[in-house]
Structures are given as C-alpha cells and as structure tokens.
Amino acid sequence: MKKIIKMSNKNIALESIKKIYSWRFIEYKTKFITETKPSLDEHVLFLKKQLSEKKSIWFGLFEETIKNKISKLIGCACLYNYDKTISSYELGRLMIDPLSTSRGNGTKLLFFLIEYAKKELKAKRIIIHVRKDNLIAIKLYTKLGFTIKDNDIIYKLELEI
Ligand SMILES: CC(C)(COP(=O)(O)OP(=O)(O)OC[C@H]1O[C@@H](n2cnc3c(N)ncnc32)[C@H](O)[C@@H]1OP(=O)(O)O)[C@@H](O)C(=O)NCCC(=O)NCCS
C-alpha cells in the first residue's frame, strides 16, 4: 500500500532524511541545476529548517510492506517559493527511489501535489525548472499538462490550475 504524507519534523525519520540526501546528491546529482554537495549534517539542518518553516511544504511517498508493515520512503517532492502576485508555487525536489521508478510513482506524487496546490493552497499556477537534458522528468511534467515557457538550458514549465 502506498500513501503520500506531508512531512514535518515530527514525522520524518533520520533514515528518510538520509535517503533524500542520497537521491539528491549521489544517485540523481546530475539531474539537478545546482551541483554543490553539502555534507550530510548540513543537509539534515537544511531539511529540518525547511520543515519548520511554512515556506516549503515537503511530501513523502511511502510504501508499506504487507510483511512487516513498516512504511518506507520511496519518493519525495516539495512546493515552495509562493509568489502571491501570481498565486504560484514552485515544485521541486521530485525524486523517486531508483528501485521504484517507471511504475507510476512519479505520476502519483506529481498529481497529488498539483491537486494539493489547487485545492488546499488555492494556488493558480505551478512553476517547475528542469534541465533540458532531463527527458524523463520533462515527459512526466508535460504528460500532466505542464507547458514549456522558457526554452533555455534550463526549461521553465508552467501549469495553470
Ligand atoms: C522523473 C522521475 C520523478 C519520474 O518518476 P517515475 O516514478 O519513474 O515516473 P512514472 O513511472 O510515473 O513515469 C512517468 C513518465 O515518465 C516517463 N518515463 C518513466 N520512466 C521512463 C523510462 N525509463 N524511460 C523513458 N521514459 C520514462 C514516461 O513518459 C512515464 O509516463 P508513461 O508511463 O505514462 O509513459 C524519476 O525518474 C526520478 O526520480 N528522476 C530523478 C530525479 C529527477 O530528475 N527529478 C526531477 C528534477 S526536475
């Protein structure tokens, strides 16, 4: 069984923070725009600060195994940088565990965040910045209705919601 949970300092395990670190700065480091790598301790502090602020809203996709009923983090994404002038959020840090990709998990998580931004946050637009060479991510975004606005080295995609 899979579920998507809004993450906070109260419900995030250190193991999940370590996973996010590993995806972001090891497995998927070339997929992101910024390539600087913080230490694990710096990342823990950064994430805990993000989770304590209202500016960034992090979500985790968890999978519960029938055998031991332990929920393990298999993906994450975040809504941040609210711009009240255009009622928009940026969506970023979308990552699915390398062992769980190509099974609809990215679609599930992205769809959930779009609905959350629309219904809970009353946003009108979602903006994503993605590297031009990240073809799988671009395919996913355009599949869910995002359109390319700036066609530079970094694509800017938008979705009116
Ligand atoms: C991008 C990412 C989140 C997609 O997650 P996912 O769970 O594999 O996505 P899904 O299984 O829902 O597939 C979504 C779409 O991506 C494309 N896709 C997925 N895996 C693919 C593959 N191996 N080859 C080609 N296209 C693929 C397909 O178009 C697919 O839609 P479809 O199956 O309806 O055709 C995941 O690959 C990832 O974590 N990548 C590294 C981090 C990253 O690039 N994040 C985005 C930064 S902007």
Give the structure's gist in a few sentences.
This protein is of the alpha+beta class. The chain is built from 4 helices and 7 strands.
Task: Describe what you observe in this structure.
This protein is an alpha+beta fold and 161 residues long. It has a single domain (2-160), classed as 3-Layer(aba) Sandwich (Aminopeptidase), CATH 3.40.630. It contains 4 helices and 7 strands, in the order βααβββαβαββ. It has a 7-stranded mixed sheet, sandwiched between helices. β4 (88-96), α3 and β5 (125-131) form a beta-alpha-beta unit. α1 crosses α2 (40-52). It is globular and about 45 Å long. The relative contact order is 0.14. The model has no long low-confidence stretch (mean pLDDT 93). The site of coenzyme A (COA) has 19 residues, from β4, α3 and α4.
Q: Which features does this protein show?
A:
161 residues; alpha+beta; Aminopeptidase; 7-stranded mixed sheet; 32% helix; binds coenzyme A
Which small-molecule species are bound to the chains here? coenzyme A
Number of strands: 7
Q: Percent range for helical residues?
A: 25-40%
Report the CATH architecture. 3-Layer(aba) Sandwich
Order of helices and strands: EHHEEEHEHEE
Question: Nearest-angstrom radius of gyration?
Answer: 15 Å
CATH class: Alpha Beta
Helix/sheet category: alpha+beta
Query: What is the CATH homologous superfamily assignment?
Result: Gcn5-related N-acetyltransferase (GNAT)
SS field, number of helical segments:
4
Distance between the termini: 28 Å
- The largest beta-sheet arranges its strands as 1-2-3-4-5-7-6
Quick one: biggest sheet? 7 strands, mixed
Q: What coarse outline follows from CA principal-axis ratios?
A: globular
Instruction: Write the CATH fold name.
Output: Aminopeptidase
